[in-house]
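Bench log. Compound arrived from synthesis this morning; before running ITC I wanted a structural hypothesis for how zinc ion sits in the protein. Inputs:
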Amino acid sequence: MHDEPIDPFNGDPADPASGLHDPGDDAPLDALTDVERQDVLEDLADLEIYQALLAPVGVRGLVIECEDCREPHYFDWDLLRGNLRHLLSSGRPRVHEPAYDPDPDHYVTWEYARGYADGVHDTLTDGNDDAPGPEEPGGEEPRNEETGREEPGRR
Ligand SMILES: [Zn+2]
């Protein structure tokens, strides 16, 4: 009959509830948990990859559906990185300051960016050893009709 969830702070002197009435200056409020911190670090790492892949094809940043405003916000790469770093250091998200007057065509979702990165990764992986790629030098691609191949009935 152990239905109750285990109290993660049971017996822990760092129980956040014990410090509620002790506004220490140097104690960071709402510090991220290790898991949250890891998530942010992974987002930052993903962001580097996405920017490296997508910026060259004209994507300026990511669009994120805001749960507060119920509308999409557009973030430039630098702004996103700044927000994530701010979250890491302060433990709280920045008040959202989306890009000014963005062109939605230049922003993609996290999901799109992730799929794009996966696709590029798969392409690179597939092209490696066993499967000869389509750009194999010296391929014996049959010529098509428009390249001047002799056709019957035209001589
Ligand atoms: Zn918002």
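What the model suggests: The pocket of zinc ion is lined by residues 66, 68-69, 73, 96 (CB under 6 Å). Strands lie at 61-66, 71-76, 107-108.
ITC booked for Thursday regardless.
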